[in-house]
């Protein structure tokens, strides 16, 4: 399972709880879309996950920026993701970012608003924030490989309730 989190905004640890903590511990890979706030928070995620990749966000200082990139590509289950915290220009800029990086889908954060947008030029996934939802529900994303290719995904609250499901199938 691939678990996607973002926007921790913590000064004192990863703030993972309940289903989100369990998912991170169970995951084959955890991707964080930025805004840790402190280097110790990044380290707490690395300690918790078996395999962990991240990008930095606009609230991350030089100690984090020296350790993780602003953008990266990640492949899971045959799906190529372009990962960033945000791009100025909204969904259009995010789609262009994904296309420029040769990705099948984009993972991003910043808005703290969980959602999957699969109707545009390229699917866009924002896991929301598991720790500081800013008026949205606390959430993360879980994606699993499909036997016929691609991924089945869901947006999940920290209490384990699924509130949105989706599929990502790479272009052949």
Short précis:
It is built from four helices and eleven strands; from the N terminus they run βαβαβαββαββββββ.
Description:
The protein contains 4 helices and 11 strands; from the N terminus they run βαβαβαββαββββββ. The two termini are 22 Å apart. The longest helix has 11 residues, at 90-100. Helices cover 20% and strands 31% of the residues. The protein has a single domain (2-168), classed as Purple Acid Phosphatase, chain A, domain 2. Strand 7 (115-117) and strand 8 form a beta hairpin. A 6-stranded mixed β-sheet has the order 3-2-1-9-10-11, with helices on one face. A 5-stranded mixed β-sheet has the order 4-5-6-8-7, covered by helices on one side. With 172 residues, the chain is an alpha/beta fold. It has helices at residues 18-26, 39-48, 62-65, 90-100, and strands at 2-5, 29-32, 52-54, 71-76, 79-84, 105-107, 115-117, 124-126, 139-145, 151-157, 162-168. 44% of the residues are buried. Its cofactor is a divalent metal cation. It comes from Haloferax sulfurifontis ATCC BAA-897.
């Amino acid at each position: 399972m691939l678990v996607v989190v973002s926007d921790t905004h913590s000064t004192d640890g990863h703030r993972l709880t309940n289903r989100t903590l369990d998912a991170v511990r169970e995951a084959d890979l955890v991707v964080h879309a930025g805004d840790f706030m402190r280097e110790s928070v990044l380290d707490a995620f690395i300690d918790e996950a078996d395999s962990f990749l991240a990008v930095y966000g606009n609230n991350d200082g030089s100690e984090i920026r020296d350790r993780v990139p602003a953008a990266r590509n990640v492949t899971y289950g045959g799906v190529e993701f372009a990962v960033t915290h945000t791009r100025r220009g909204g969904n259009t800029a995010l789609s262009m970012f994904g296309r420029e990086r040769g990705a099948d889908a984009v993972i991003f954060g910043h808005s703290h608003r969980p959602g999957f947008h699969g109707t545009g030029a390229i699917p866009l996934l924002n896991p929301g924030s598991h720790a500081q939802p800013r008026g949205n529900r606390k959430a993360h994303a879980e994606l699993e490989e499909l036997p016929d290719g691609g991924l089945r995904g869901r947006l999940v609250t920290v209490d384990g309730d699924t509130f949105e499901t989706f599929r990502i199938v790479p272009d052949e």
